[in-house]
Amino acid sequence: MWNYARRDAKTWSSAITGLTLQNEDKSATMGMISARQQCRLYRKREQSMGIIQSSKLTFEYTKKDEEGNIEEVKRAVDGVDLDIHPGQFIAILGHNGSGKSTLAKHMNAILLPTEGTMWVGGKDTKAEEYLWEIRQTAGMVFQNPDNQIIASVVEEDVGFGPENLGVPTLEIWDRVEESLKAVDMLEYRRHSPNKLSGGQKQRVAIAGVVAMHPKCIVLDEPTAMLDPSGRHEVIRTVRALNEVEGVTVILITHYMEEVVWADRVFVMDDGKIVMQGTPREIFSQVETLKAYRLDVPQATLLAWELKHDGVDLPDGILTMDELKDELVKRICQ
Amino acid sequence: MLRDITLGQYYPADSVIHKLDPRLKLIGTMVFLVSLFLSHDWIGYLAATVFLAGVIRASRVPFRYMLKGLKAIILILLITVVFNLFVVPGDVIWEFWVLRVTRQGLSQAGFMAVRLIYLIIGSSVMTLTTTPNDLTDGLERVLGPLRMVKVPVHEIAMIMSIALRFIPILLEETDKIMKAQTARGADFESGNLIQKAKSMVPLLVPLFISAFRRANDLALAMEARCYRGGAGRTKMKPLLYEKRDYAGYAVLAVYLAAMIAIRIMR
């Protein structure tokens, strides 16, 4: 869970730099559970109360003509049940118009359900008196990095959230520093956001949310407007937050590669959750995914095609390294 | 290229004037402008000149930057001088056809010119030594009392600072749209004024739509980060007076007192 005490600078930087390394060998040891993962699993079991829960959540957009008559009703989210536990890394997948962004906006009480209920940190989002508490519990990062940075200096933007919460000045400075460190952007604190790259801007936006000390961060397609290296930066940052700090992460995306690291994946189509499970479980069903107009990571697709043509490979290969190892094993035999 | 433009005309330097509280600089500029209208003879202007020269010296901004602002008012300056020169009645010192220059006219034209030039230089000193953000912050605090009469001071300041943040973004976008429309055969260069104005339509419409979309996104992002107006908000960088600011106020008070004294005594 989120630790309110001031964090040690070293832990952060080592966590971030260490993660790249860890990235590479993770695929090799995918089958085994590392000590760190075991620790995480234990922590997760401890906190059994869901941080984000919903029951039969439904949201309808009504389109009205000029006289105010209802012309068309579109169900963007249709009877979604969710139960997300603290510390989890959740990915929500879906093609355009599948309702995933609409669902995300419910987690921050930007949209309120037409039917059903959404609880954030145990609070019903429809209760107006909890509105700001809910927004603090579930921070939100949006798609366009330019349109969510308010100030013209990086550190002032990160301080914007705490300012709104009425945090005392000195603590704002502490929070800004630790948040910028957490996303590895401390050296840019006095820069103008206009001069940063897309990935850097998005990391500043994440820092802005982190500075509010949320229990959960909802990222609504944070990488959709970024180049591959920017995408990598952002995902690495998000994973560091999840693994080191135990912040619950809900990542909404349509890039399959980003989903590989999630604890649990939900696939949405036409407002409904149509598939859920671990990335491995999801990606072993290549044909079903294709039916929902979703791409599969290249490695998975290649493995699937090979298997189709008679090569003996296991289901649900997620990364290139994993595929390489399996193929080497086959060739050596 | 567009993203490199600096907003306002802030000149970065490490001087006492740069470090002063923006509130002091705002009030100081106001006092200086008022004092210019107080003086009617050369002693008053001499005092103002000494004060202004002292401040410019302390600001470490090259003098030519101060003069840049004058370009904009050259026409107004000329008209003022010419009118004062020929219209003011009094002792004639030079006459040609219908034109008549009087001694009083000559001195008034001179004073008016100096007054206008000092007005511009005085306010340039403020904008050159204060970042737009500091100015906005200062303005929010200086205008604070207006809240009593229901002026939304915080909101105005917030609008100003957001505008400052988005001007470069929108400029860049204008550039992009312009290129896109040129690629589709739009012509922004040729034709007379009306044709040129008309050719701006395909540029302005997408720009406005995109600005509204951005505004919508930004409002959403601000709300998601718990923004709910000025009430209950703390400041990351609150404006606090320091010793040098009190000293600044003291200097300002002495200057104003001197100007009033000169005015009364003569």
Strands, helices and their partners?
The complex is a heterodimer of chains A (333) and B (266).
Chain A: H1 9-28, H2 35-46, E1 52-64, E2 70-84, E3 89-93, H3 100-106, E4 115-120, E5 123-124, H4 131-137, E6 138-141, H5 154-165, H6 169-182, H7 198-210, E7 216-220, H8 228-245, E8 248-253, E9 264-269, E10 272-277, H9 279-283, H10 286-291, H11 298-308, H12 320-332
Parallel strand pairs in A: 3-8, 3-9, 6-7, 7-8
Antiparallel strand pairs in A: 1-2, 1-4, 4-5, 9-10
Chain B: H1 16-19, H2 22-38, H3 42-59, H4 63-68, H5 74-87, E1 92-96, E2 99-102, H6 103-129, H7 132-142, H8 153-183, H9 193-199, H10 201-224, H11 243-265
Antiparallel strand pairs in B: 1-2
Structure description:
Chain A is built from twelve helices and ten strands. Chain A has one domain: Rossmann fold, CATH 3.40.50.300. The longest helix of chain A has 20 residues, at 9-28. In chain A, α5 (154-165) crosses α6 (169-182). In chain A, α8 links the parallel β7 (216-220) and β8 (248-253). Helix content of chain A is 41%, strand content 20%. The model of chain A is unreliable at 1-32 (pLDDT under 50). By secondary structure, chain A is an alpha/beta fold. Chain B is mostly helical and 266 residues long. Chain B has two domains: 2-130 and 239-265, no CATH class; 167-224, no CATH class. Chain B contains eleven helices and two strands; from the N terminus they run αααααββαααααα. In chain B, a hairpin with a 2-residue loop joins β1 and β2. The longest helix of chain B is centred in the middle third of the chain and has 31 residues, at 153-183. Chain B starts with 15 loop residues before the first helix and ends with a helix. The A-B interface holds A 108, 110, 132, 135-136, 139-140, 142, 144, 146-153, 155-156, 159-169, 172-173, 176, 193-195, 208-209, 212 and B 3, 132-133, 161-162, 164-165, 168-169, 214, 217-218, 220-228, 232-238.
